[in-house]
From TrEMBL:
One example of a Gene Ontology biological process annotation: formaldehyde catabolic process
Cofactor: Zn(2+)
Domain Enoyl reductase (ER): residue ranges: 11-366
Keyword set, alphabetical order: Metal-binding, NAD, Oxidoreductase, Plasmid, Zinc
Protein name: Putative benzyl alcohol dehydrogenase
GO molecular-function term, one example from the UniProt record: S-(hydroxymethyl)glutathione dehydrogenase [NAD(P)+] activity
Species of origin: Pseudomonas putida (Arthrobacter siderocapsulatus)
């Protein structure tokens, strides 16, 4: 069938709205009508070549939509179901079987090969243009389009009454921030945390921490307006890291160091500074995406004294558990991420990216209709 999609022709090329072809769903797959898709920093760095997605391609990975058709073998979904597109995984490797599908051993192929990564259609693409294949299946969805082919087992059903166009960012950015706190760090009653970079991911981490027993939630950023928002969402203290020394300010607030420090920037210099805010048995949590090939260094002796460094993909856990819980917390008023959102039309993608980069908006969402 013919659909509309944003195509990136080559590295650093603009998003171009085009009519392309989408094949029918295969075994275990579903065709979705995409209602909306969040715009994420990962889309921008992929276009810039910092992730190995082949071009030309269709990006987008924070989609929500309505099931239009199901392929052979799909029994858990029917046309009309409202869904969020969760994290793709093989379901068969050691990590998947251990309940950690975010760390599926085939994650690289699942996210950025541009092709289906499992099943009888492995290595093929559902997308084409003028008879020529297009790379798609970005994060298992390529949701910068009016329709998408996805694996049924990646989908998370949501109640009919929830605003579907709002929910796409729960597939990646917001789930990453919240899941890093609730699934991966799991801070104890009375712990302290530092969140550096309070865009959508960082604010989601702060909202999640507010739903825990953490008693000190420190937000750091270079934009005062974002720090003010962090206070509204649950931060107990803020630091403008452009005008203040991060390590010294943390010491003033806590008397020493924090139990957990969450990097949501992907900036190497920031990460190396943050490591100094974490003491013995503390944990540095890496969330933000750094450029390809980036590396950082830590002081060996202070790290040796029980300091931990962990990376987090997609918030950890299972999509159904994480995304479903965040939907419920939002319904209860305990995860008010709707206040972060600004809507754009599909052909306004470049403006959405620019507004996000400058800090004018926190979380852009593209509407498909």
């Amino acid at each position: 069938m013919k659909i509309r999609a944003l195509v990136v022709e080559a590295k650093d090329a603009p998003f171009k709205l085009e009519e392309i072809e989408l094949s029918e769903p295969g075994r275990g797959e579903v065709r979705l009508r995409i209602v909306a898709s969040g715009v994420c920093h990962t889309d921008a760095i992929t276009r810039a070549g910092d992730m190995p997605m082949p071009f030309p391609c269709v990006l987008g990975h924070e989609g929500s939509g309505v099931v239009e058709a199901v392929g052979p073998g799909v029994t858990t979904l029917v046309p009309g179901d409202k869904v969020i597109i969760g994290w793709p995984s093989c379901g068969e490797c050691r990590n998947c079987l251990d309940g950690q599908p975010r760390y599926c051993l085939h994650t690289g192929d699942a996210l950025v090969s541009g092709r289906r990564f499992k099943g009888e259609l492995k290595g093929t693409t559902a997308y084409s243009r003028n008879g020529q294949e297009l790379n798609g299946h970005f994060f298992g969805q390529s949701s910068f389009a009016t329709h998408s082919i996805v694996s049924a087992d990646a989908l998370v059903k949501v109640p009919d009454e929830v605003p579907l166009e709002l929910l796409g960012p729960l597939a990646c950015g917001l789930a990453t921030g919240a899941g890093a706190v609730l699934n991966e760090a799991r801070p104890k009653l009375g712990d302290s945390i530092l969140v550096v970079g309070v865009g959508a991911v960082g604010l989601a981490a702060i909202m999640a921490a507010r739903n825990s027993g953490v008693t000190k939630i420190i937000a750091a950023d270079v934009h005062d307006n974002r720090l003010e928002m962090a206070l509204e969402f649950g931060a107990t203290h803020t630091i403008n890291s452009r005008t203040s020394d991060l390590v010294e300010e943390v010491k003033k607030i806590t008397g020493s160091t924090v139990d957990f420090a969450f990097d949501c920037t992907g900036v190497i210099k920031v990460i190396e500074t943050m490591a100094q805010t974490v003491g013995m048995l503390g944990t540095l949590v890496l969330i933000g995406g750094a450029p390809a090939g980036a590396s950082f260094s830590l002081d060996h002796l202070s790290t040796l004294w029980g300091k931990r460094v962990i990376g987090v993909l997609g918030g950890g856990g299972r999509s159904g558990q994480l995304i479903g819980s965040l939907v419920e917390l939002h319904k209860q008023g305990r995860f008010p991420f709707d206040r972060l959102v600004t809507y754009y039309e599909l052909d306004q993608i470049e403006q959405a990216l620019e507004d996000s980069k400058t800090g004018k908006v926190i979380k852009p969402i593209l509407r498909m209709s």
